[in-house]
Structure of Carbon starvation protein A:
Amino acid sequence: MVLFLIGLGILLLGGFVYGKYCERVFGPDDRETPAVKLADGVDYVGMKKWRNQLIELLNIAGTGPILGPIQGILFGPIAFLTIPIGCVLAGSLHDYFVGMISMRNDGAQVPKLVTRYLGNGTNKVYNIIIWILMLLTGVVFIYTPGDLIVNDVLGMDIHGNVIWIVYACILLYYILATLFPIDTIIGRIYPIFGGFLIVSALGVLVGVLMDGGASLHPITEGGLISVHPTGQSFIPVFFITVACGIMSGFHGSQATLISRTVMDEREGRQTFYNMMLAEGFIAMVWAAGAMVLFNRSAAVDTSATLMVGLISKEFMGKIGGLIAIVGVIVLPITSGDTAFRSLRLMIAEQFKIDQQKKIKRVFLSIVIFIPAAAILYYAKSNSEGFATLWRYFGFANQLVAVFALLMVSTYLKGNGKNYFISLLPGMFYTFIVSSYIFHDPKLGLNFDGRLGLEGYTGSYLVGLVFALLFAWFVAYSAKKRKDMILD
């Protein structure tokens, strides 16, 4: 319990202090924001600060900050330190600077920012990765809430015909949310969903505090870092597993979306940085709830999705548990629709497709949803389909974050500001994604296995090389494109 409370203290106090510092480094001023300067009634729509904050939180808080920590706590109580420290130094910083740099560039999506600050060649690689991530995110956030609705709300078989009806309903909502102006659906109903999210997190927190820490101890053998039940290595697997609770590349696409609705640059810290802190809080609470329940039942092999319902009902009873489950269902739905909206805007921006005309929005949306439906069908129809989908989603998510931190570091260095605050987490996550993909025998290259090396020996060395290349590329890009970088 002490470690959990220390972690919450780091998240709150550290986030306040470091958030203020990040704001000072960026330097928000009185210039007109895109919401004011480019108002079009569709995507550039000024909204109140509290509404922007809630929408940003709901946009970024999919199932990641819940399912990820539930799985990540199996690595031991170290999660209660790594989640808040990583959230303060990396995740919140990532969301804040991406959102604010986008605001300074007329609400441009990340691909356009990458082109400006890192060059067209880098953008071609990035575009492929981010478009795939947005598509996979949308599909994952149809699959996950659909299964929760059928299993936990309707009490029916997730492999029956009903699941396809539920998937179709969610997809239809996504189509509507993608086509209508941002304040028609998202701006009006998301604040209501925010209440479900907050209630579920607070309910689990109260349950953990009432437990008194009796069950907050390592689930498996070990101390601060426990022996994972399946033998996975803490580095790099933990930081891929608990992606959204610490840092997520997907958030960049959502921050740039909200950068078009913020009416004052000084609202940026509360809207971007602090909302990621709130997601870190959600991750901490569900990690603690999972640790308590795992220790009570020793069900270390229980699936993360099933654990959501068990934790909710354990701490909040049947009615409160149902509210919590509804909150968890809402999370991915509210992230999925904005993922598709972001993908539409990215493609439109890349190919200069006017989005003020409804017919063009309809056509582009159809282009997006056809492959999404095909991937969903594959994931549900094959025994290993969703596992494969989730692995690609998780890796792509962190790789996208590396590109965003590369862009942020180049921007800060080119403007003569303290770029080390983004350079260091960027180098760290470059090491993480590189060593992970080189080592993984299923998704990756099985580098160590092919060379007959023990553990991650070879993959760690490769990760170190790529981390150094990250630092070199920041210096190279800042020098080469200095005229394009200056505000």
Notes: The chain has a mean pLDDT of 86. The radius of gyration is 21 Å. The chain has one domain: 2-485. The chain has 20 helices and no strands.
